Each structure stands twice: as structure tokens, then as C-alpha cells.
Amino acid sequence: MQLVSIIFIYVLFWTVSVFIVLPIGIRNHREMGVDMVEGQSDGAPANYKPVKLIFYTTLLATAFFALFYLNYSNQWITIENLDFFGSRERLGL
Fold it and tell me: SS3 for 54?
């Protein structure tokens, strides 16, 4: 696998991991008992910590990418394993 492919696949895993990690542990102002600013949305987070978010996202993305790369190297799960309906034979591939 080329370096550019590795970087882009890792970025994809990181982007997906952001959406997995983002809602974890977020509390709004009502849940924390903090006064809201006028015009603020009711669901706006009161305890948003971007450094913590980036750390956990990077940790999760690295774990996902490591599993992906190990599978790529060792061929644990291949297309043949996922072809449940025999479409490769029907298509002559």
C-alpha cells in the first residue's frame, strides 16, 4: 500500500471517528445547571472540550486503522469471504 493511500484511509477513519466520539459526554446548560446566554440554543453544549475530543478521536481512529491494516496485510477477511450470494461466479470474475 502506498503512503498516500495510507494517509487518506487514516483520514477517513479519523473523520468517521469524530462523529462516533462527538456526542459522548456532552451535557447542555440545563443538565449542568449553568445559565444560558440570550439567543443560545437549548442543545448547545456547556462542557465542550476540543482537545479531549481530538485525543479520543485519534485513539479510536488509530485502533480502527490498525485493524484495517492488519487485515489488509494478513488477508483475514477478503472479497471471497463476503460474497454470500456467489455473484463473482455468476459475473465470471
Answer: helix
Beta bridge partners of 79: none
Q: Strand, helix or coil at 26? A: coil
**Cα 70 from Cα 67, distance rounded (Å):** 5
What are the φ/ψ torsions at residue 45 (nearest 5 degrees)?
-70, 145
φ/ψ region of 50 (left if φ > 0, alpha if ψ in -120 to 50, else beta) reads alpha
Give the residue among 24, 32, 9 at the shortest CA–CA distance from 55.
Answer: 24
pTM score, two decimals? Answer: 0.79
Exposed, middle or buried by CB within 10 Å (0-12, 13-18, 19+), for 16? middle
Structure confidence at residue 69 as a pLDDT band (50, 70, 90): very high
